[in-house]
Amino acid sequence: MNDFDIPIFKKSYELYKLFHSFRNSIPKQDRFTIWQRCENIILDIVEGILWASQISKSEKLPVLEKTSVKLNFLRVFLRLLKDTKTVDAKKYIALETLVDEIGRMLGGWIKSTKD
User: Fold this and answer.
1) CB proximity list for 14: less than 8 A, separation 6 or greater
2) Which domains does the chain have, with CATH numbers?
């Protein structure tokens, strides 16, 4: 199986594409602060998922747990984007829905790695 075929990678890739599609609607003052931070965190999540898919089971857990922490940071920053009206509720819900799906998948992967 190709690493690009794993469902969690596809979801995180989809999250980045969706996030990127909103970029032009973001005010310039926010685009280079919290928006950029969120974008970097999403890329870190994609990278963590790919990294974990490449390494042995014994090495996976720390990478997956670090990726999970990044996902939690992203949740907080997305909420900040909504609360500061940088993104509207519709965009926030679309992003948060994908983040929740990735979170469930990541939680399952972490649980199966611990077993």
Assistant:
1) 98
2) 3-114 (1.20.1440.60)
